[in-house]
Amino acid sequence: MITFLFWNLGRYVLGNLLASIAQHNGADVILLTECQETATDILLALNRGDLSEYHYAPGYGGCERIQIFTRFPDHFIPPVAEAPRSSIRRLALPGLTEILVAVAHLPSKRDSDPDSQIGDCIELAKQIRMTEDDIGHARTVLVGDLNVNPFETGMLLANGLHSVMCRSIAQKRHRSIRGQPYPFFYNPMWSLLGDFSPGPPGTYYYGASRQSEFFWYMFDQVLIRPDLLDRFRNESLQIVTSVGHLSLLSRSGQPDTKVGSDHLPLVFSLAL
Amino acid sequence: MPTDLWPEDLIGQPEIKAPVTILKEQASLLGKKTKNLIEAEVRPDQEVETPTTLERIMGQTRPRLLLNEGEFRYDFYLVAKTLGYRYKLLSIQHDINLYPVAMLPDEDIMMEISDGQKVQKQWAKSEPELIELLQRIFTAQKTRRVIQALLAQMTS
Q1: Taking CA atoms, which of A66, A228, B46, B146 is between 20 and 30 Å from A101?
Q2: Residue-level pLDDT, tens digit, chain B, 156 residues
Q3: From B57, B58, B81, residue closest to A56, measured CB to CB
């Protein structure tokens, strides 16, 4: 079982807290964005005390937004495609099934507009499909801060991320529109929306004075290709709200930036 | 069906450890001492052909083809990944017999381990001699200075 931890650190200095969360959850692969600290500082925090478990896994330099740390030497997770907002890695551990790990941090709504966000999803989807064609398989997991909710257009469009809420639909592998096949992603984040599911209603909170406000947003997401679905159990996915006795939430149940980031971390596992 | 003239026990535990195996073992130990801020890598000496597009995509380098008459060459690097910096500490060369192996460390280190004499290569005729030479290289003042300088850069 390989455990992944994704966190948008929100430019807060959180190396030590990150280390606690990583240790508590047994994270083998740590995927970060909006790091205020250097990779050196984060590595020192992860390897505090007598530990030297974690390695820094740099990319080619094509994506400085994403930082990756692993509990195995980085040559097992080389970059295969990079863009300013995304990094795709080929995870090939000895004796385990090889997969692609795509990590992304798409532009925020503050820095973008709805049409551009749709375009970003389309471009990311295209990059993933091209990499899958090059590598020769589609055992891909996409994780990151996509800055859109699961129900937004870019996530749904067939030529976008084409992500669906239902495993059985995703297991059909693709859908053809006018003769063109479009592969699915399964999006388990749908099942975590709102407060009828365990955990918080989303990963990010924002309450503005405007007519239409969601308050809770599910910007941080994990999407799984059908070819990897048999190795993913929904129960392994959680939005992290505490580590030990330390809560990442304020008394009102929102991400507490006095403790952590304005985004909550995601943890999930794959049985490779 | 032709008679199989090959011995039955071709594949078994090798009797001697290849120099590259010893280098890789040592490489894996450095990270533990530096909290993986500095790691070591062993690579076959430079690729001889331009990688294909797919090899570039996949981050692969092809091992160097055998050089003259079955010669093997490997480079041992100190790598500071958070700095994006790599330093070649030494190279080794040997033929199919594995020993003797020629050691070519960094120039300053060579001066240190050769008692100030200008020597192009140091030779290890056996595994114990290789281990002894490696220890002298790893504990050389220049080696320590490089590691300390890298650490200082990283934590500044």
Answers
A1: B46
A2: 899 999 888 887 777 889 999 999 999 999 999 999 999 999 998 544 444 455 555 555 544 444 455 789 999 999 999 999 999 999 999 998 899 999 999 889 999 999 888 888 999 999 999 999 999 999 999 999 999 999 999 887
A3: B81
Paired tokens of A257: 């930036």
Question: What is the rounded CA–CA span in Å between residue B107 and residue B59?
Answer: 30
Residue of chain B whose Cα is closest to the Cα of A67: B82
Q: How many Å apart are CA A270 and CA A139, to the nearest integer?
A: 11
A vs B, Cβ pairs < 8 A, gives: 54
Closest-CA residue of B relative to A43 is B37
Q: Which residue is closest to B155 within chain A, CA to CA?
A: A40
ipTM: 0.84
CA distance A117 to A101: 21
Nearest to A227 by CA among A96, A134, A100, A94: A100
Asked whether the beta carbons of residue A74 and residue B31 sit closer than 8 angstroms, the reply is: no
Contacts of A80 in chain B (CB under 8 A): 57-59
